Amino acid sequence: MVESMVDVEVVYAAVDRQALLSVAVPVGTTVRAALQKSGIAEAFTELNLTDCAVGIFGKVIADPDTRPVQAGDRIEIYRHLLADPKEVRRLRAAKAAEAKARNQ
Question: pLDDT band at 34, cuts 50/70/90?
Fold first, then answer.
C-alpha cells in the first residue's frame, strides 16, 4: 500500500542568507520530524532543531513534537532575538523625551 504524502515548506532566514525548502512527508508527520526530514540543519549548521522556536504561517507552535503537519503548511524557524523590541522602543522614546525636554 502506498503511503499518503503531504507537501510542506520549511523556511529559515539567517543573518546572511535564507532558505525555502519544499519537502514531502507522510500524513501524520510532526512539525519537528518534518524539519529534520527537510535537511535544513545540514544547510545551516548553527541551527539546533531540538530547541528552536517554530511556527506555521507566523503563529508559534507550542509543541512541535506532537503537532502534525497539514498539506501546504509553511514551517518557519525563528531565530532568538538579540534585543527585546518593546524594551528598545521604550528606551528610544525615553531618549526622545529627554532630548525634547533639553531643547525647551
Answer: very high
SS3 sequence of the chain:
CCCCEEEEEEEEECCCCEEEEEEEEECCCEHHHHHHHHCHHHHCCCCCCCCCEEEECCEECCCCCCCECCCCCEEEEECCCCCCHHHHHHHHHHHHHHHHHHHC
Contact 18, 27 (CB under 8 A): no
Residues 80, 85, 14, 34, CA torsion sign: positive
Provide the whole-model pTM: 0.74
Query: Which tens digit of pLDDT belongs to each residue from 44-88?
Result: 988 888 888 999 999 999 999 999 999 999 999 998 777 778 888
How much of the chain, in percent, has pLDDT values that exceed 70? 97
CATH class of 5-103: alpha beta
Q: Which three cell numbers stand for residue 59?
A: 503563529
